[in-house]
Each structure stands twice: as structure tokens, then as C-alpha cells.
Design brief:
It is a single chain. 29% of the residues lie in helices and 25% in strands. The chain has 548 residues and is of the alpha/beta class. The protein has a 9-stranded mixed sheet, with helices on both faces. Strands 4-3-5-6-7 form a 5-stranded parallel sheet, with helices on both faces.
């Protein structure tokens, strides 16, 4: 079985049912694709100009047309095809069209600069690029010297005003056959290259096959019990394995999913109400913003219809228990879940809390469906009791390799186990708690300080919206823990007040400095600590080196 089999089954058995809805509440971005531009999308509701929808039959047909377009250009099986699009109704049909042509889908981060786009296209040997109007200005500088585009020889533009250096996706697919190309795909065929988050430098390319994608569908649907009656609200970017693999539960169950282009609390609640969403995946900042809006009175929950909303789950980062306690105060009937995963383990689910384990909020859970998990020391031996070690996982979604990087692959995969780089511990019931990223541990005076523990504690303060703890070079202790604090709108505080708040922490865990600033996060919600280190530690590091 391959991932495209699920799409074809849905088209055959539930072709008229709605598969995807796109909602774009804002058209403020210059040069963005406007809704009326896409007359090729059937079933657009004229009473809701910001909404488009697509049935399963239309989804499959559009995937077939794009597959046949690729093959008509002589693009061979195994060719890498890049996708550089904002979330939109075209994204997933293009992704599945690439797979149906026997090619590899290579999704690109929509925040990439021109330099990062060029780097990733070259690293993954991309020969075809599909892009939207938001990225024209970033691609044009790469045309001056063609080598900046690596192997790319063909570019398809998803939009209306087609730049001279690309071809119109919209026009070309119209003339392509709506039936599946006569290719036989197998589960061990290569399917996709994803990129690591790049929070420690340029990203690595992660290679997966169809078997991994299929198992991601099974794991997600098993964890959340999705049925055809569910409606999944997807807000995070589809280029990331987290968003797409959570949507895979909808693919397996043949249920509707809603792509919301925006994260304002009002937009989220309106989408849940209008589309009758029952499952919503949020990142920590979005959940915090929604709760803050309710706390302040800016949002009145009685104005929305939310009875069908059964599950809120969060992934991509450690979840403060205080956040979930606040959430359940407003939504006491909600099931809650968190999933842990990496792009190297095909997204979320290799560790999974479980909706029945609300009493373990703060843990990331136990090994997910079809997965195994261990916590090991630096020699690869299991740690004892509640000792801290590195989390390693094994299961059907582990990457084949880092593409063209044997050394990094050997460092990450040992005897079939994926070394995650995350430090963790078991509790007395064998639930796993993340302690921190291995590289983020602060070693101060010989003591290991795990920033996540301090961050979770500080987020319980009424005035704190977000916090990041980093290590700053210190001539005496090696490093000291420094807390970067972002306050909630309308709240004030001082370093002295927060130091007093932290007085209940063990002395060695208390931040030595507190800095007030905004917290940078990437599109999947992870704190960009390297950016904070560059901002606050680079000069300090040079100073300490001079002193030494």
C-alpha cells in the first residue's frame, strides 16, 4: 500500500464529500493570491468570498492532472519536485500529484530567504519547482546566476500574474488527463524529502518512503479515533511534517479538513463555529493568545458555537501544564492530547500522551502506536529510575537517511534507533517527560540546568506570555542561566519582581539575569534560541575570550 491509495479510495467511495476547505480571513498581503482568482476551483461559495472548498473527487482529479503534467514534460520517476507555497487549496493536490508521478515531494519552508531556498534546492537535487506569488521576489535574485537554482530547469507558478521565468500551473493542468497515470508504486518507493527545522544552522534533508507516510496515517488516526464525521482544523504550515501528518488522520478516515490562513483567536473560533470543527491542533502561542483574549473580555465564547469541538491537541514543543489548566477552565469538556515527534520520525506520534491521560499533563506520554521509546545515557545504556538521558525511538516512520549526509545519518541512527537529541526522563508510571534539548542544557558551575523546567515554572506567572532560558558565557561558572521574558499585553513587571517570584526554585535553577524582549518562534512554534544567543551572547562570548 502507498499513500496515494487512500486518496483514490476516498474519491471512489465518498467522491462528493468535502475533503478540503480553505479559509483566508485576511487579504492584506500585497501580491497575495485573491480568492476570485481561482475560478478553476469548483464549489466556491459566492456568499463567503474568503472561503473555497474541494471534494474528494476533485482533489483526486487535480492530483492526477498535475501528475500527468509532470510526466508529459519527460520528468522521470524519482525526480525531486519542490513545493514553495503558503497553505492553500492547491497545496495537497500538488503534493499528491508529485507522488502519483513517481516523483519525490520536497516541501520548502515559506520563511526561507533566497539564500536558504537556493541551499535547499541544491541539497535535495530539486529539478522542478512549484511556487506561489509570495515567493517571486525571493526567487528572482537567484536567476541572475543560474547555478543558484541548482538543478532546477522547470518552474510552475500557482497564481494569476505569471512571471516571465515560470509557467502557469493553472493553465497547463487544465489540458492534462484527469485519470491516474499508469504507474505502479510500492511502499518502499521514495516519496518525500523534508528539511529539519534549521534552528542550529542550515537544515538537513530528511528522506522518507511511502511506507513511512502510510504508517503516519495509521498512527494519527489510531491516536485520535478520527471518523468520517470529524472535521479537523489545520492552521500550521503544510510544508512541515507536523501539520501534514496530523491531516493524514483525515485522509485515512475520509473526513473534512479546514485550512485556516491566520492565527487570530477570533478567526480560529469563527472557523470552528462555521465549519463545525471537532479537532483543532494548536501551537502553544496560539492557545495562549486565545486564552488571553477570553481573559481580557475581548472574546465572548457565548458568541460561538463550540459544542462539537471534542479535542484540542498541541505538539511541536513542550507544553506548560499551567496552560492546559487554564484551557480546561474555559473548555472543561475538551479532550486534550499532545504528540511528540520529529521530521526524522515522520512528524508527530512516535511518543503520545493519549486522550485518557489528562492526569499526566506535562508529560509527552509513552511510545506511540507501532513505536518503541527508550531513555539512554551517553553510552547508549538505559538510564535507571527517573534519571535524565537522551530519548531514542524506533518504529516504522524513521527516516531512511539524511540525504547526501552519511556522517549525520550515522550519528542519528544507531542499531535501528533514532537518537532525538532531546533529554528526557521517565516518571514512576513510565510516562516520558521532556527535560530539554541536549544542546540547550546550561552547565553552570558543574550543574546541569534544564531550561524547560525554568520556562514552565515562569509561565505560570500572571504577567508572563512567553519565556526562553538560554546559557550566557560567564568567566567563573562557565555559563549562567538567563531568562528572556515576553510580557502579556497590558501587563508590567520588573526584574526584581520576577526574581522574587523565582525564589521558590532551587538556587542553582534561578535565572541570574532577566531580560524583557519578544520571544522569536519559528512557524512550528519552536523557540529560536540560536537567534537569542546571537543577540545576547555573541558579544559576551568575545569579551570572555579576551579576558581569558
Amino acid at each position: 500500500m502507498v499513500i496515494t491509495d487512500f486518496l483514490e479510495k476516498n474519491a471512489r467511495l465518498a467522491g462528493e464529500d468535502i475533503a478540503l476547505v480553505e479559509i483566508n480571513p485576511s487579504e492584506e498581503r500585497d501580491n497575495a493570491v485573491t480568492w476570485r482568482d481561482f475560478s478553476l476551483i469548483e464549489n466556491t461559495r459566492p456568499d463567503l468570498p474568503y472561503r473555497r472548498e474541494m471534494s474528494w473527487a476533485q482533489f483526486d482529479t487535480k492530483a492526477n492532472r498535475f501528475a500527468n503534467l509532470l510526466l508529459s514534460r519527460g520528468i522521470k520517476r524519482g525526480t525531486k519536485v519542490g513545493i514553495l507555497l503558503m497553505n492553500c487549496l492547491e497545496w495537497l493536490p500538488i503534493y499528491f500529484g508529485i507522488l502519483k508521478a513517481g516523483c519525490l515531494a520536497v516541501p520548502l519552508n515559506f520563511r526561507y530567504s533566497s539564500e536558504e531556498i537556493a541551499y535547499c534546492l541544491d541539497l535535495a537535487d530539486v529539478e522542478v519547482l512549484v511556487f506561489g506569488p509570495e515567493f517571486t521576489d525571493r526567487i528572482e535574485p537567484l536567476l541572475d546566476e543560474r547555478q543558484h537554482l541548482g538543478r532546477v530547469t522547470t518552474m510552475f507558478f500557482v497564481g494569476i500574474e505569471v512571471p516571465a521565468f515560470a509557467e502557469s500551473y493553472r493553465e497547463l493542468v487544465t489540458y492534462c488527463a484527469p485519470t491516474a497515470p499508469p504507474l505502479v508504486l510500492e511502499e518502499r518507493d521514495l516519496a518525500a524529502i523534508y528539511f529539519s527545522s534549521g534552528t542550529t544552522g542550515f537544515p538537513k534533508a530528511i528522506l522518507h518512503d511511502h511506507k513511512a507516510l502510510v504508517n503516519a496515517c495509521i498512527t494519527e488516526a489510531t491516536h485520535h479515533g478520527q471518523t468520517r464525521d470529524d472535521v479537523f482544523l489545520c492552521i500550521p504550515p503544510l510544508y512541515h511534517t507536523g501539520a501534514k501528518m496530523h491531516w493524514f488522520g483525515s485522509l485515512l478516515s475520509g473526513s473534512k479538513a479546514v485550512l485556516l490562513r491566520g492565527v487570530k483567536p477570533e478567526w480560529i473560533l469563527r472557523a470552528v463555529t462555521e465549519e463545525k470543527c471537532s479537532i483543532v491542533w494548536l501551537l502553544v502561542p496560539w492557545a495562549q493568545d486565545l486564552l488571553d483574549a477570553v481573559d481580557s473580555g475581548r472574546i465572548d465564547l457565548s458568541h460561538y458555537y463550540l459544542d462539537q469541538w471534542r479535542l484540542m491537541h498541541i505538539g511541536a514543543q513542550p507544553v506548560p501544564p499551567s496552560l492546559i489548566r487554564r484551557w480546561l477552565g474555559y473548555f472543561p469538556t475538551h479532550k486534550y492530547d499532545t504528540n511528540y515527534g520529529l521530521s526524522e520520525s515522520i512528524g508527530p506520534g512516535c511518543v503520545h500522551l493519549g486522550m485518557e491521560n489528562l492526569h499526566k499533563v506535562g508529560a509527552i506520554g509513552k511510545a506511540g502506536h507501532l513505536w518503541e521509546a527508550r531513555i539512554v545515557d551517553e553510552n547508549g545504556n538505559d538510564v535507571s529510575g527517573e534519571d535524565v538521558g537522551e530519548l531514542i525511538v524506533r518504529g516504522p516512520g524513521i527516516m531512511l537517511c539524511y540525504y547526501k549526509n552519511e556522517e549525520a545519518t550515522a550519528e542519528s541512527i544507531k542499531n535501528g534507533w533514532l537518537y532525538t537529541g532531546d533529554m528526557a526522563r521517565f516518571d514512576e508510571d513510565s510516562f516520558i517527560y521532556l527535560v530539554d534539548r541536549k544542546k540547550d542544557v546550561v552547565i553552570s558551575g558543574g550543574e546541569n540546568i534544564y531550561p524547560v523546567q525554568i520556562e514552565n515554572f515562569m509561565r505560570s506567572h500572571d504577567a508572563i506570555k512567553d519565556v526562553a532560558v538560554i546559557g550566557m558565557p560567564d568567566p567563573r561558572l562557565g555559563e549562567i542561566a538567563v531568562a528572556i521574558v515576553e510580557l502579556k499585553e497590558g501587563f508590567t513587571s520588573t526584574e526584581e519582581a520576577l526574581n522574587e517570584f523565582c525564589a521558590t526554585l532551587p538556587r542553582y535553577k534561578r535565572p541570574r539575569r532577566i531580560i524583557f524582549d519578544t520571544i522569536p518562534r519559528n512557524p512550528t512554534g519552536k523557540i529560536e534560541k540560536p537567534a537569542l544567543r546571537r543577540k545576547y551572547c555573541a558579544g559576551r562570548l568575545v569579551e570572555e575570550q579576551i579576558m581569558c
